[in-house]
Amino acid sequence: MVETMTTSAVSWGLSAAGWLLSPILTKFVNKCYDALGIDPPPHLLCRKQALLDKLENLQTFLLPQLLILTEAVQQSPHRPLLKQLLQKLRYAFYEAEHVLGLIEYNRLEKEVSSIFPSISKSKCSFKKLKSKLKCESTKKDLIKSLENLEKTVNEAMKIVGLLNQPNSSVHNSTDRPNELIKETISNPGTEVIGREEDRKYIVELLQENIPESSSNAKCYSVIAIWGMGGSGKTTLAQYVCEYVKEANYFDLVIWTHVSKKFSVRAIWERIWESAFKESCPNFSSPEGLQSKLEEKLRGQKFLLVLDDAWCDERISVQEVEKLFAPLSASKRGSKVLVTTRMEETAKILGAMNPIPLRELDEVQFLSLLMCNALGDEKIGDMEEKLTSIGKKIAAKLCRSPLAAKTVARQLHRRLDPDFWSSMLNRSGLLNDTMGALYLSYQYLPPALQRCFAFCSLFPKGHYFDHDHLVNLWIAEGFTEADENINKHPKQIANWYILELISSSFFQVDKLNSNSYYMHDLMHELAEHVSEGECFRIESGDEKKIPTETRHIFVVLDMLEEYMDKICNLNYLCTIIVRTSLSNFCLKKVELDALFMKCRKLHVVDIQCYVVERVPKSVMHLRNLRYLNLVTKLLDETHISLNKLYRLCVIYTGRQISNVGSLISLHNLKEFRIGAASGFELKQLEHLMNLFGSLSIYGLHNVKNAEEAYRTNLAGKKDLHTLLFSWDYESKYVLREIDVEILEGLSPPPQIKKLAIKGYSGKRFPSWILENNDNIKYLKHLELADCVGMEALARINELYDLQYLSISFLPRLNSWEPLPMKVTQLELSHCLSLAFVCDRDLEVITSIRSSIISQIVTFMENSLRKNVHGSIDFQFECVLEMMKLGNHIDEETLSTISKDLKKCLEKRLDLIFQLTNKYSELFLSPALNKLSIRSCFITDRILAQSLQGLTSLTQLTLVDIITITCISKEVLRSLNNLMVLDVTGCMLLTLIEGWDTHKTLEELTIECCPSLILETSAAAKSRSILKKVILGACMPSDDMLQGLASLEGLWIWDCPTIENLGIYHLKSLIDLVVRHCPNLVSLRGISGLKNLKFLDVVGCKNFKCYSDADKVPQLNQLYISRLSLLEELISLNGFSYLVSLNLYEGQQSKEECEVLHHLSSIEEIIFSQCKLRSLPPLQCLRSLKSVTIDRCVNLISLPDLPPSVQTIFIRYCNEEFTKSCKDTSHQNWHKISHIPEKNIRP
């Protein structure tokens, strides 16, 4: 455990400034002097060297004192001077940084003028002179800033002298970092709570044996637990040790505390003392100690615990091997268990899959606090009262086990409700825990300290988007001090994020790997170390903004109130604005005031709904590097920001004219070529810092190939994703100019993803056909709407290709084997390719007439027309094929345009007439996802092509009008298939083996009107299906029999279903049945104990939940008639309903009375209802959210309970929508108390 440090012993503002006295400042000073010119005056060179010498002295003396002797500095009489000094040094640094930015701006301005001569030619002599004078003035400002910095450093040297005096408390302190850390032992000491499952899992790993056959393997393996400081890693390791000692799994259990200073010899000595319970002899050399330790461990099966290990990439592989060398002669099956705050440390020490320590849940955490606070004391009647207060205290401790134990020790002193209440109301409960976390912060590199501290600007619980955070750090200049000068700033920032995750400062969102959050404790640490620089204004705050604030976060609906104060912040360089209002508009005058007064801004991130207009005053922000403003004016189709030369990141929602002058730009995600000046393709020529992805639209506006060559895409080495897009009105015309343009758009050699859309050339460019070294690392290729392409020449030579999408290549008439690494293939709308065999065509010919008649009958009786079964869809398919063959028959088109039967027959005729027919579809054996849409492939060819695809997990077949059967042999050969989607296959009559497949978990069958689905007797014991979607097909009433693993069932537009038997679906959670006109009942619903979501809508003959004596514990219910709800309420077990959706309903007043029984409802949704007024809702005391969606007849709102926090009104009639915004209307008064209102027309 780390010995905690109280707030009284820590001056956060003092110690957190350590990054400033790091090499960051030295590099910065060098950069400043470089900016003054190649040959600065001699006196400046002398001053430069003197300043650098002083900075080195500060780094070697003052910085270590700050980081190690924080407590002693706090107690020093010179502490106030030192604190004041560091603040002055910080702002001298910031001022010089700002001026240096202006010099960089002037340099970029000159560069842009040389690139675009029209700009420099337009300048008169007076303006040129003015520009020159401005540059000289800025350099003088920089000299003044450096003089101020030097003056502050001189003051610092005096403080160093005072601290270094013999009687100084700092000088006399002998503590080192490792001595501030308390040694840990293998015994947990107290009861361990909430870690039983974790201990069980780790013990299982410890018991895994290394096979004797693996002769080259080490005799031991490494397991690691990692997590932030104070999270319980050491306690868990102690718990594990205690268990394995009692079970005698190992001959020796060795506990060693590693600490921050990684010393191989020191660790060996601790291993000796722990293993043999004696002091380690004083060996004359490390080799002697290693040899003797190896001898004593020989033949022993041990568990070695390395607790609280710290090491980073500076620790070499050789040092790690040396550390573990004495273990090499031990018994096979030995283990090393590491606990560490950093995932990277675990990997360096050899752990293959480090285990992140999970957080205790609320109940476990409260038990931990109360167990440590009460101990064995008998408190009788006070227990209930103390537990109640304990719950509130626990809520403040951010689930930190260290905080719980620390606070519990204080609570244990007096088991008295009054004392506990005073502890609850005391500020700083987490201060002791902060000391433990602060050691982790100190261990971060200086640049990462700045990045981490900056994150305190956002509220607790904020989820950081990866790209957003990276762009902010770059804009703030945090990546500029990094030594990796050859790397793009985004690569450096990406590495920073990985380091912060590895060190437990960030946690990865489980639902989105590109999203991160900070534990509440880490957020508090960030707030401490950024104190005075970051300020946040949230709802209900009445705090005074510190004058030295540099970064500010504000909720938009409070911005007007604080705008004057914000504009007076002289050091402000970041403003981030968020809003909870959906239709808020920020006025131009407010932005003007901000931009005119706060000219040091680096970041303007106003992510509200819209701003009125981007004001011209934004041009005054010469150090602006990040701009996020979305303008609402529809007539403002583009904006000009061509003077913001330092701008790296921009989001405006509008096109930017003359973007080529923004030569620092990183994030131009898309560029649209236009006919107007300022939107030419050549604008991309000098944007050499572009990173990541670039989409180029409007290539049809390019007049000649020279423009394409001038873009110099091949030289933009940090681009890895490109999209080229043409958009011609006439799709089928071939254009040779497109070939020349694409030739000039040769991508950089490191390109990973490439998409070409709308291209009308007949062939690939030479950088694919002749020299595909340019794209040899390509992993992802999309070809779409390339109407002239006839062959995929040399595509099989893209050896690293993993994803291939070919969509609407109507002239593609040949097929080659795919590269061996392709794992995902999407093949769509290739109208000149047919993978068929004559026997299959004969089968289709024999059955087409009867099946097409059956299809037409089915679709005519369908309530909801599926797109693939519609006349319009089939007619479009016929029309596309006729256009391709240049034989459009207007008379035929007129005849079939409103006749589904004739459309289907004509489409089949055109397929039969194709001349390019192939008997085999060559696929990559590595495929795991295959999608074929609107292509022509018959039964035998499909079966033959799928043979051997043992890696295939997902198969999608959409609008394949030429398949009639998917045999059980086909599905059986796909022995890893998990998802099968068959949609719009109009002639398909049979799918065999779907219900007995050993790995199939999801099945979708939609708009296959010829398909009759039944289950076999074997399904009961073999099916593992979890999700089934059935739409516009003909399942039998009992087709679900035996699908005991099914968790989700969606059925729509299936007229053959009358009494749906669901009693076998014991695992069912979600049940949706819509627009099944003949459905009468659901049989067996009472047995579905896991059912949470029920949706029965548009089933006009549905009457009852047959044989239901008890409804499951539903959370969500979708229905169209409240009378069905009344039937459900009459049954038992309905008190868990949280969400109710009334869909397409038209309820009587009597039916609405049933809502009074829904005491648990938290959300109610009225969707497409025909009501003029909604039913009374005041009785729903738990209601929090109301949604009114597409209720076009609605006139008035009901009275709502005070519990409602959110109301959404969207797509209703215009008069009703306006009344809900009109402060004089009664509808407004009924919702005015609701905090969050989202009203859309």
Structural class: alpha/beta
Poorly predicted segments: 1-16, 61-74, 120-127, 166-181
The radius of gyration is 36 Å
Number of helices: 39
Taken as a percent bin, the fraction of beta residues is 15-25%
Distance between the termini: 59 Å
User: What proportion of the residues is helical, as a percent range?
Assistant: 25-40%
Shape: globular
In this structure, how is the largest beta sheet organized? 21 strands, parallel
Tally the beta strands: 48
On the 0 to 100 scale, the average pLDDT is 79
Question: Main traits of this protein?
Answer:
leucine-rich repeat; 21-stranded parallel sheet; 48 strands; coiled coil; LRR_R13L1-DRL21; 6-stranded parallel sheet; 39 helices; 1241 residues; alpha/beta; LRR_dom_sf
How would you portray this structure in words?
By secondary structure, this protein is α/β, with parallel strands linked by helices. It contains 39 helices and 48 strands. The strands form 10 sheets. It has a 21-stranded parallel beta sheet, covered by helices on one side. α19 (431-443) packs across α23. The longest helix is centred in the first third of the chain and has 39 residues, at 125-163.
Protein topology:
Elements: H1 12-15, H2 23-35, H3 42-68, H4 70-75, H5 79-115, H6 117-121, H7 125-163, H8 169-172, H9 196-207, E1 220-226, H10 233-247, E2 252-259, H11 264-276, H12 286-297, E3 302-309, H13 317-324, E4 334-340, H14 343-348, E5 355-356, H15 362-374, H16 382-395, H17 401-413, H18 417-424, H19 431-443, H20 446-454, E6 464-465, H21 466-475, H22 489-502, E7 507-508, E8 515-517, H23 520-529, E9 534-537, E10 551-555, H24 559-567, E11 574-578, E12 585-586, H25 588-597, E13 603-606, E14 610-611, E15 626-628, E16 638-640, E17 649-651, E18 655-657, E19 670-672, E20 692-697, H26 705-710, E21 719-725, H27 736-744, E22 753-757, H28 766-769, E23 780-784, E24 803-807, E25 824-828, E26 834-835, H29 838-860, H30 871-884, H31 890-896, H32 900-912, E27 917-918, E28 929-933, E29 936-937, H33 939-946, E30 954-958, E31 965-966, H34 968-973, E32 979-983, E33 990-991, E34 1002-1006, E35 1012-1013, H35 1019-1022, E36 1027-1031, E37 1034-1035, E38 1048-1052, E39 1059-1061, E40 1070-1074, E41 1081-1083, E42 1093-1097, E43 1116-1119, H36 1122-1129, E44 1139-1143, ...
Parallel strand pairs: 1-4, 1-5, 2-3, 3-4, 9-10, 10-11, 11-13, 12-14, 13-15, 15-17, 16-18, 19-20, 20-21, 21-22, 22-23, 23-24, 24-25, 25-28, 26-27, 26-29, 28-30, 30-32, 31-33, 32-34, 34-36, 35-37, 36-38, 38-40, 39-41, 40-42, 42-43, 43-44, 44-45, 45-46, 46-47, 47-48
Antiparallel strand pairs: 6-8, 7-8
Helix pairs in contact: 2-3, 2-5, 3-7, 5-7, 9-10, 11-12, 11-13, 15-16, 15-17, 16-18, 19-23, 21-22, 24-25, 29-32, 30-32
GO molecular function: ADP binding
Organism: Rhynchospora breviuscula
Coiled coil: 132-159
